[in-house]
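Q: Two folds, back to back.
A: First:
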Amino acid sequence: MNELSKKLKVIFCLASLGSGGAERVVSLLANKFDSLGHQVQILCLKYDDVYYKVNDRVEVVLVTKEATSYCSRLFWLRRYVKIEKPDVVIAFTEGVYCFTLFSLLGTKFPVIASERLDPNAMSWNRKLLKKLLLPYAKWLVVQTQEIKKYFSPQIQRKTSIIFNPVNEEVLNYRVKIENKREQIISVARLYPQKNQKMLIDAFGRIAHKYPSWQLVIYGEGPLRQDLEQLIIKKQLGGRVFLPGRTDKVIPELAHSKIFALSSNYEGMSNSMIEAICMGLPVVSTRVSGTEELIQNGINGFLVERNDADGMAQAFEKLISNEKLRIHIGKTNIENTKFFLIDTVVNKWLELIWKIKGNES
């Protein structure tokens, strides 16, 4: 019997099933694992919010309803895993995988840690925590070569690069050019890391030249008020919009002409992957995860962090040249195969069976 066809019991650990990128990836992986007949559980260790839908057979456990304090959750997780006896525990994001590794110290259960952000941007104490706990992980999964190179040779030897999967909805939702809006779209939480202030500044520098174009930033977060004030200050009311979170990201991407990302650091943007698969040209800051996805001038444009002028120039190149936008879009569609859920899940299954084979 082919190993990939055997059934597994998998526990995913993450902070919540809220509207973040890691949560989206876990929901897609969990649903696909479930559809292949594997038994899947998702443990939400820190928050109770559930934004992404999962299949009925996927069990979602809100751990804060079982244990309220940090210490009680540590012991709860240890007991729970011992009772459930999963084939593997997959912990997403730095804080969660450090918590999970600490909780399961001394147990036989293999933990795959999934790094989601560029560790170079982390504080010294978070870097120290990684250094102390990652040796106890059975394996580490990262999204880019740049992130892998951050870690010690010892950790790199047990590290795999696996891209994020794309929501299969994108394959059925590509919109004809004539039905698209003259719109730049960005999808990211309204957090300092995402640097939407620079994005708004960049658009403001060329907005007067292209009065029919608008910038729409989907997402929610603590910077909303600051960004709203910046829009007023730059007299971009009616041109820049902050509609909040949406469960209609795919249709909104499909009807846009350009995708933008202005982050100061990243792991790998899920929304950027979806935009690529939908044939949108991308303008992004040059951060971890973008250079794996974007060849500058080929399927998008990369600018340096905080370079509002460079981003404005890239916008203008695309806005003023429809043929270039269409050409870049076709190039991006050709890259879809790298992000299909079947491709990504097979990489995860191969890794899990490799780990189980090494244990036997």
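A: Second:
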Amino acid sequence: MPPNKHRLCHTLAFAALAAASPASAQMPVTTATHVQTIHTSLWSPPSPDPAGINWRAETQDLWTTDNEVDEMGIFAGVTLWRHGTTGAVSQTFDLTGFTNEPTGIAFDPAGGRVWITDDNQKTIYEIGFGADGQFPSADDQRFDIDGLIGAGCLDPEDITYNPFTGNLHVTSIDFSHALCTISPGPNGHFDDIEPQGDDVVTIVPLEPLGLFPKAILKPKGITYDPIQNTLIVADRENRDLFEFSIDGALLRKIDGTVVGGYKPSGVTIAPSTVNPLLRALFVTDNAVDNGVNPLENDGKIHEFIVPPLNGNAAPVVDAGAPQTIELPVDTVDLNGFVTDDGHPFPPSALTAEWRLESGPAGVTFGNPADAMTTATFTLAGVYVLALEGDDFQLTTTDSVEITVDPPALPPSCGIGPELALLMTGLSGLRGRLRRSPAS
């Protein structure tokens, strides 16, 4: 690799972003709805300065780090909290055995590993789960990706993982304030940049974004949205969220208003407490820094519901596979499926409805408002049943064909075995009489 490759990536990304970023007048601003505030300051032990937060698919809950609590008198040996979306803590952990400042956290949705940034050591820890499959655990395998400064990613803050590209995305607070993308290189695993490994780091500086509406002054949190294929960045200084394409083009500002204001530090996407079909943003808020007030304890997590970047999606509907029955069996199980993205919000509601589209007679549904129900028929024939999903703004319909056959005829068209045998005998006698010579 040429010695200036990282510098070249930095320059090319800067030029691409400057060309791709539209002027502020063209940049959309989306208003997010604030749903709830979790007071991490009330946890036991408390988290006064929550930093990284990530939804873990394996355990279906949130994991939050605190990178300042170890500097305070209230520190009780906990720097990582596992909790639900309403804030109920189920487990706590101490990561000071390898990091005093666990700033960002990102789990691999496929399982087996997690990444944690340390903005004091300027490094990323990749932790592979051991044989017990647990984290943290005594048999974890840890590797340091500590060549980031040499690659231009001077002060790693939060981190997120893109499972489709296999890349890590990191926010960096330094003189340029940047998004850093770390690719695992030809060998397919993260092993640091040259000369230790073959990772490739691409830097997208955020200075050109000063046109809208002002510079992103302190990019802290970051999360990858696999549905939109975008990155969402939390700016602590401007107290706003921004959505980017994965190559660094700014797409929109997300304006989340909290009474009294907030200072975002980390961000992740998780099922909403309003409706699990909704995907909400959970944003950590470390409010007053302990450097200003060493006695502060005001940590929070805010839940926001944000309209999708591409607008409300229509429901997804599947009426199931075609079926055939034979009377007198007159009922089938309908295995329909209806789901949605939870928008528009409000009302964040979804209905399902079965109806007869065509057929020789009527149909009785067990519960026409349930995607999985029954249908009962009275006459033979071919029926087409339609299942409609409605999110109160858009509808989607899918159909399924049900064939009802008439009862099968009895064997031998109703002639019993004795009568059949007699008819066979008479036929044989008739043949012999025809062959007899004339008297």
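Q: And?
A: Confidence is low (pLDDT under 50) at residues 1-25, 210-214, 419-436.
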